[in-house]
Amino acid sequence: MPPPLKVSPLVQEALDAEQAVVALESTLITHGLPYPLNVETALAMEAALREAGAIPATMAVLQGEIAVGLSPEQIEALAQSPPGSVRKCSRRDLPIAIALKQDGATTVAGTMIIAEMVGIKVFATGGIGGVHRGQPFDVSADLLEFGRSPVAVVSSGAKSILDLPLTLEVLETQGAPVLGYRTDNLPAFYSAHTDLPVDQRVESAAEAAAIIRAAEALGARHGLLIAVPVPPEKELSAAVAEAAIAAATQEAEAAGIGGKDITPFVLGRVADLTGGASREANIALLINNARVAGEIAAALSRG
Ligand code: PSU
Ligand code: MN
Q1: What is the distance in A from the centroid of ligand 1 to the CA of 128?
Q2: How far apart are CA 43 and CA 45, in angstroms?
Q3: From 121, 159, 280, 295, active-site residue
Q4: CA 144 and chain centroid, separation
Q5: Which option is the CATH number for 5-301: 3.40.1790.10, 3.40.640.10, 3.40.30.10, 3.30.450.40?
Q6: % of residues, the chain, pLDDT over 90
Q7: 121 is catalytic
Q8: Number of Cβ within a 10 Å radius of residue 136
């Protein structure tokens, strides 16, 4: 029995015609950004990838049914949902949300699972989960999904509060190549530079598409990370980002916040501590990543 699944007609037609489609997650809408910035950013991401020649497929679980290709009204409703009313859905959460007919927002892992299920090869997001500093066994399910779902994830790396060297080690173990989009190093979300080399720099969407195609030809069961630095005009200095993240993480610990609530809490506090600058960086990188993902999906569909 397949899971309850509704793909929008526009997305289904594009998939049937092998046109460019890009998956988008919904946790950033319900847990990542405040209203109305969340809905504005989600719609701006859709517009950016449309402009690049792709069809957006924003995903969520709506009353227990997986929805692929949300309408603007559905995105608005998710964006306005009261805090705590939408389940954050990583791999472990999807069966619960479906069986209990709940509303759920998909994380990177949750979105990769559904993208593979419906045949979407490219996915745009902001940051991926990683390995926590000082807690080498706290590994985000996002990273393990890179070993399971053959989807190319366009993101600005992971936040520097994570242990980025260990995060790269887990991606290596999972067999997922890390490509730097016009960069030699892994970006650290709010800031562009780290001293961690990527596996391969690519200069264009066509070069990224060629590597995705080669993975497909190999029958790969793993994903790829395509790391795109935050646009320079909105970048935070590594020192500012680091200080805010460190303070926010300490506050989370003091307040006893843990598990899946940490990332949303830290995102919110970092925005307060940086006077909103981190939020501007977050929004700019999300829209830019959507555009790059649209270009890669378009290059892939040209074959
Ligand atoms: N990082 C961000 N913004 C986000 C997320 C991560 O800068 O909104 C979300 C993504 O959906 C990601 C999830 O998949 O948080 C990771 O959660 P956790 O750290 O609980 O694995
Ligand atoms: Mn965790």
Answers
A1: 6
A2: 5
A3: 159
A4: 14
A5: 3.40.1790.10
A6: 90
A7: no
A8: 12
